[in-house]
Write a structure and sequence with these properties.
The complex is a heterodimer of chains A (381) and B (140).
Chain A: H1 30-33, H2 49-55, E1 57-63, E2 67-73, H3 77-89, E3 93-104, H4 110-119, E4 122-123, E5 144-152, E6 169-172, E7 177-179, E8 192-193, E9 198-202, E10 207-217, E11 228-241, H5 247-256, E12 262-264, E13 271-273, E14 328-343, H6 349-373
Helix pairs in contact in A: 3-6
Chain B: E1 22-26, E2 33-39, H1 43-54, E3 59-65, E4 73-80, H2 87-127
Antiparallel strand pairs in B: 1-2, 2-4, 3-4
Classes of the chains: A alpha+beta (381), B alpha+beta (140).
The structure holds iron/sulfur cluster (SF4).
Iron/sulfur cluster is lined by residues 239, 257, 259, 261, 279-285, 330 of chain A.
Chain lengths: 381, 140
């Protein structure tokens, strides 16, 4: 069996942990993929790019190197979910997979150390690499990044500045060095592992000497290949005030909401929705507070010692002190998703999202091509 | 060895030699109905296609299942309303629609990235990066 994902998603140029719009490898649209003579193509509703473009929209609200928050509108929940799942486990990255331990006298077992190394993000663009066949196949610069870690703690006899007592030595991922595999031209930026990660601590005299190969993989195989720390979405909340809330009540509402969604309009003193996005739908604002039942009859039953019950205001009553349930409508927009994506360092966060879209597109194209390739064959009646 | 029957990790990803990515079998008993077998795919794509098919007015039935958690295969059954529109055509239409959607979203995001880059540039040239991180004005 060949260890190679048959749907290698790109033929793009190499951009080292970077981002190049021109290399996003766009595919022609459906209409161009299939000649008009195709039986399948003729039955499609013509793709209306302009219409789709008004329906679908993306707005980025936070963009840093390792985090994006963006609004994606016009898509349905399955699309949002597919994108989330692809970001988690189907965007390839490089990660340490093979570790050759030459020497390890540290307290960490070889396996444990290897596992730790596997989880350190490798700062390289996996899209520029091919998959490495498993087992004995020799590593090449096309599919492998080789690194070496060699540290030795000074022995006990070495005098230390602070009065003789030998200290433990911390080993950080910064100490890992890249080893060029063959005579390939060296890239401008040297591949490296995410710096600043503590790998082990050495007692005086202990040493670690090992070599590791980072290869391309997918989160589906092991979480160390997942490019994201978080890839999550939520539906955009909708908060509506359906009946005016003014004065004292408005002020109470403003205080009630833990996310400070409401504000008071200057002049009118009316409560308005100011920060709708911040709403967590905790429902505090529409919670019906259990008000003590006013006992008028002496012979009222002592409900197992419970002296109160839920007091729901009558349908047409104005809000009581207890609740704004009749003046506020809470909901969400089922076609507006707020994504937040945090990168683990291999890619810029927005590149991960873009890559997920690209992979999704390729999945569809792959199946369409499969049908187009042999529509007449048996099994495709 | 204890892990003798442990499936290879890459099984979820790699299409074995000689296995078709996609198979379609028309149903022999029910009219304009058929089953798709998609190899090396999971809920990510299957649920997406199913939902897209159900948005199609000419599709009467669409559902999928994963026969076994260790077999990386999804089975999708589709029935359309008339013989003029076969399940295969519905399937293709759904895929095409999804592909276009991803394509448009990709474009939208790319232009959004460019918009941010422009905002950054003006911010850095004006106030040496003071405004970086602030969201740019909404386009709509
Ligand atoms: S549900 Fe109500 S109280 Fe809770 S965050 Fe939203 S607006 Fe505020």
């Amino acid at each position: 069996m060949r260890y190679c994902r048959e749907e290698a998603p790109s033929d793009r140029s190499v951009a080292f942990a970077g981002y190049d719009l021109s290399s996003s490898g766009r595919l022609p649209l459906m209409r161009e993929d299939y000649g008009s003579g195709s039986r399948i193509a003729t039955d499609y509703e013509p793709f209306d790019g302009a219409k789709e473009r008004t329906r679908l929209w993306v707005r980025m609200l936070v963009q840093t190197a390792d985090e994006v928050v963006m609004d994606v509108g016009g898509v349905h929940a399955p699309v949002a979910n597919a994108l989330r799942r692809i970001m988690l486990v189907e965007v390839p990255t490089m990660a340490v997979e093979y570790v050759t331990v030459h020497r390890n006298s540290s307290i960490l077992h070889d396996e444990q150390l290897a596992h730790r190394l596997g989880l350190v993000p490798v700062l390289a663009d996996a899209r520029a690499f091919a998959e490495r066949p498993p087992g004995s196949a020799a590593a090449t610069a096309r599919d492998t990044l080789r690194f070496r870690l060699r540290v030795e703690a000074p022995s006990e006899t070495t005098s230390t500045p602070n009065g003789g007592r030998a200290q433990s030595t911390a080993v950080y991922s910064d100490q890992i060095e890249w080893v060029p595999l063959d005579a390939a031209p060296q890239p401008a930026a040297r591949p490296r592992l995410m710096p600043g990660i503590l790998l082990a601590k050495l007692a005086p005299g202990q040493a670690i000497d090992l070599e590791m190969d980072a290869v391309k993989g997918y989160g589906q195989e092991h979480a160390k290949w997942s490019p994201v720390a978080t890839a999550a979405y939520r539906m955009a909340p909708r908060v509506q005030i359906t009946r005016d809330i003014i004065g004292e009540q408005a002020q109470r509402l403003v205080r009630l909401c833990p996310m400070h969604v409401f504000d008071i309009e200057d002049g009118t003193g009316r409560a308005v929705v100011r920060r709708e996005r911040d709403c967590t739908r905790c429902e505090e604002c529409v919670r019906v507070v259990r008000a003590p039942v006013i006992d008028t009859a002496d012979d009222i039953e002592e409900d197992e010692g419970e002296g109160e019950e839920e007091a729901m205001p009558p349908e047409d009553a104005a809000d009581t002190d207890a609740s704004f349930a009749r003046s506020i409508r809470l909901g969400h927009d089922p076609e507006h998703f707020i994504f937040s994506v945090e990168s683990t360092g291999q890619y810029r966060a927005d590149v991960i999202f873009l890559e997920a879209l690209h992979i999704l597109k390729h999945k569809c194209v792959r199946l369409l091509q499969e049908i187009q390739r042999r529509p007449e064959e048996e099994g495709f009646g | 060895m204890a892990d003798d029957n442990l499936p290879d990790r890459f099984e979820a990803v790699v299409l074995p030699e000689g296995v078709r990515k996609l198979r379609y079998e028309p149903d022999t008993k029910v009219e304009h109905c058929g089953t798709f077998y998609i190899e090396r795919e999971d809920h990510t794509l299957a649920n997406l296609i199913r939902a897209q098919l159900l948005r199609d007015d000419n599709v009467l039935f669409a559902a999928y299942r994963v026969p076994h958690p260790l077999e990386h295969l999804v089975v999708l059954r589709v029935q359309t309303r008339s013989a003029r529109y076969t399940p295969l055509e519905a399937f293709c239409a759904a895929l095409a629609a999804l592909k276009n959607e991803a394509h448009v979203l990709e474009d939208e995001l790319a232009s959004e990235v460019q918009r941010w880059a422009a905002v950054r540039q003006t911010a850095t040239s004006a106030t040496a990066g003071a405004a970086v991180g602030a969201p740019p004005a909404a386009p709509r």
